[in-house]
């Protein structure tokens, strides 16, 4: 924000309060009410106003307090944000970055826990980014702020407080569209993103103790996703597990599995297994049973390994 | 608020100061728009264009309101405001390229007829979902306010749109942030087949502004001078930091909603006849004749001239080829990602096999 005076933050509680997850802490004090704007409680208004600001040439970064509350803005995102460049023949662009906490693990029940990233991946015109570590969050957010297209920036809320990592002060970026091979291995590939990346890493340690060498790929960008890294890992291991906390049916795992099947069926040594949230509304007291954990991922790893 | 009576009589004290040449220009534009609407629907019926949506009866609303703006002000249309684009300098040829959705269309043939946008004249590309453009107009106005630019934004919508969430969102944000935004509601009485009485229990649309903390005014939407005068006041107020205004222009949709419906199914003939007596073009013509700046020969020349211009534009646009195949995939993102490149290649190969 110091570097680019066109960046404007807006949303519910992002100003004086610094955001309910403290993501915008201190910014109101430094940049004032013209650049860090507390808005009325209205998601379609927040996104719609951001689109207008972007049309005018600013770089708005709206925050939707929880992904679960984004639906009043769905029309603005689907019908307007995603389509402006296309429908105007490239005359208008709306490079808005929508930040929103998503996912479970905080005992939030249905309305503070869901992972509906697939809706946005299914909308041509949007980019969808999900960081898993503090370092990646800064690098990817910086890239999103410099990107010419609208970006859905989904922040896994469980790791706001449970994962620590070094974040350099200096400017750096992590390119949108590049996955990260976070752990190299030869036996099985696990694809994961967001909070599930950490679950996958834990499962990989458990598998290592049983002699299975797991490769972990953090997808990081769901749209457009890094097909090259995905396919080269598949070709290396021939055995694939995909982990996400979103519902299994039509989740992003289905897309990865289909792409692999279209391109490398004969290189597979075992069926692809998805470890995902169940096809139910997000639960409250049975949350731990709903969310994939290291043991469930380990079972899947063993299954594809021993196939 | 009315300046010209249906008879052409006018109230001199509130008559706006517009030169004779300008008045004649505005009238000609209204006639052009009317003839364009008639031809547009014909083109659709003849199967030469895919769809049509017009503004029959709403010419005074459009031309009168847009005339009150400066070129640097931004306009957010709904989908009947092609007359505003013409007023701002978009040519008939450009309009017809959009109707035929051809390779020279600014939108590259991607939108239904009259869902138009032209960045060069600050006329922002519209869409079909109702009322979504209201928050955009407020956002652009807020951005201008933050940047210290003395511009206003004007957004068009119908009375049906006032039932939508984004009417509330847009009005509410405008009230809170006191943005220089003009909400211009063309109350044409019908949202496809649903009459205004079924959109709201409120006495008028204009009174809704009060709940958002700003002024709402009602104007005779078939009186171009009243529309101009009312909009001009709202624009000046907004430009001077006085915040938003809601204008309810009371008018009537004298044609179908679009080429896809038949108003005979739901509008009584008598009602339409009543409104035809208040036709905005006839009324303005009577005014010009009373002021002795319009004659029978002017009328004949204008009718023939506009129709000829339209014919020429049609003849041109119809010959321009369809947009190139790759435009199916461009402008989704600034740069084409791998999966779209792949899909484009697949389609090109498939096309190659067909040929």
Basic shape of chain A:
globular
The average pLDDT of chain A is 96
Task: Determine the strand fraction of chain B and express it as a percent band.
Answer: 5-15%
Using DSSP, what is the number of strands of chain B?
A: 7
CATH architecture term of the largest domain in chain A = 3-Layer(aba) Sandwich
Report mean pLDDT of chain B, rounded to a whole number: 96
Terminal CA distance of chain A reads: 52 Å
Number of helices of chain A: 12
CATH homologous superfamily descriptor of the largest domain in chain B: Thiamin diphosphate (ThDP)-binding fold, Pyr/PP domains
Measured distance between first and last alpha carbons of chain B: 63 Å
* H/E series of chain A: EHEHEHHEHEHEHEEHEEHEHEHH
- In angstroms, what is the radius of gyration of chain B? 21 Å
In short:
Chain A is an alpha/beta fold and 307 residues long.
What do these coordinates show?
The complex is a heterodimer of chains A (307) and B (355). In chain A, β1, α1 (27-31) and β2 form a beta-alpha-beta unit. In chain A, α2 packs parallel to α3, α8 (195-209) packs across α12 and α9 packs across α10 (252-264). Chain A has 12 helices and 12 strands. Chain A is globular, with a radius of gyration of 19 Å. In chain A, the strands form 3 sheets. In chain A, strands 7-9-8-11-12 form a 5-stranded mixed beta sheet, with helices on both faces. A 4-stranded mixed beta sheet of chain A has the order 4-6-5-10. In chain A, strands 2-1-3 form a 3-stranded parallel beta sheet. Chain A folds into 2 domains: 7-162, 3-Layer(aba) Sandwich (Rossmann fold); 180-306, Rossmann fold (3-Layer(aba) Sandwich). With 307 residues, chain A is of the alpha/beta class. With 355 residues, chain B is α/β, with parallel strands linked by helices. Chain B folds into 2 domains: 12-323, Rossmann fold (3-Layer(aba) Sandwich), CATH 3.40.50; 324-355. Helix content of chain B is 44%, strand content 9%. Chain B has helices at 20-45, 59-66, 82-87, 92-99, 133-147, 165-177, 208-211, 224-239, 269-276, 280-290, 296-319, 338-354, and strands spanning 74-76, 153-158, 181-187, 190-191, 194-195, 215-220, 245-250. In chain B, the strands form 2 sheets. Chain B has a 5-stranded parallel beta sheet with strand order 1-2-3-7-6, sandwiched between helices. A two-stranded antiparallel sheet of chain B has the order 4-5. In chain B, a hairpin with a 2-residue loop joins β4 and β5 (194-195). The longest helix of chain B has 26 residues, at 20-45. In chain B, 52% of the residues are buried. Chains A and B meet through α2, α3 and α4 of A and α5 and α6 of B.
